[in-house]
Amino acid sequence: xxxxxxxxxxLVSISSVNPMGRDLTGDDxxxxxxxxxxxxxxxxxxxxxxxxxxxxxRDNIIAHLAGGSRTVLFEAHQDVVPVDNMTIDPWKPxxxxxxxxxxxSCDTKAGMAGMMxxxxxxxxxxxxxxxxxxxLCVVDEEHQFRGISKAFEMGAGEMGIEAxxxxxxxxxxxxxxxxHKGVVRWKIVTEGISVHSANRDDGVNAIVRMGQVxxxxxxxxxxxxxxRTDPALGxxxxxxxxxxxxxxxxxxxxxxxxxxxxxxxxxEEPMECIAEVHAxxxxxxxxxxxxxxxDPWVISPPLQRTxxxxxxxQLAQSCDRILGSHKISDVAYGTDAPVIxxxxxxxxxxxxxxxxxxxxxxxxxxxxxxxxATEVFYDFLVRVGKG
Length: 387
Ligand SMILES: [Zn+2]
What we know:
- It contains 9 helices and 18 strands.
- The radius of gyration is 23 Å and the shape is elongated.
- The longest helix has 18 residues, at 206-223.
- The protein is α+β, with helices and mostly antiparallel strands.
- Zinc ion binds next to loops.
């Protein structure tokens, strides 16, 4: 087994479930054990590292390998999504059919293992002009992006995170993702007055009110967002994913809530997008009541393609050398990268595995891709210090 696959198997066997707002408990929940493993691994490799507590039991691990004046930031998240309904043992990595199976194998422990392995090789080889490398292993990417937010709370520089360029590990199938959409999620609530359904005209039905809101939101998407487009990413979008209301069929409901998922294009700002929906309802829906907007629980800005194309160019050259070609792409899912971009560090997303296997009931990653990604990361580190 190659050193990166050996490390990946170890990472997969360490459970690090993000409860994602649910009341999950048990040994496999939270990134606690992963943080301990990472800290011990970097110490054993002689690479200094520090912890940054985000929440009890949930620590970012930040390792720094000192080299030349140019600094590369590697970033990967420690958490994985819950394991309900999985058809394989999530924590017993299995190697079969050229794949490694298990929760997190693809998203995103493959990328983490590749980056760590490349860093270890760089330290051992210590080539002339090697860059400095900071590896940031964050918590809570899958739910509220609190790990990366904490790391850059004070801008670049806090916890020593200063870098000339960054690569975020996610399963991109070895494509260089230069931009992606953002997302903001929040609830809208309508209120009514409960009465017995036999006396329905004495009450106010919150579900019927919500019906008006839903129709107005659909009009907003069709008339406004569908024609708001980005050449690489397609159109902005609003989708209603959940609705809850009512307690029994013979009671007029006094409350109804929906959950909104709004996908953002570069240039759109999450809180302004919520305000825009509010303004649309006020101006176009002719409501005789005021729906309530709860604070968003997910705010993930879009990633705009970096102006400083050095990181794209250098990574493309490494892909050309190792893979024979490169592809620069734009995707619909969100990552930690916009927070890094917001700190003024040019950033792209790159890694082994496909988003189609991420979060799946039988998650796996191609062993060949993990090894190729590792070679790309290493080639990038060796060359980038010379540029
Ligand atoms: Zn991920």
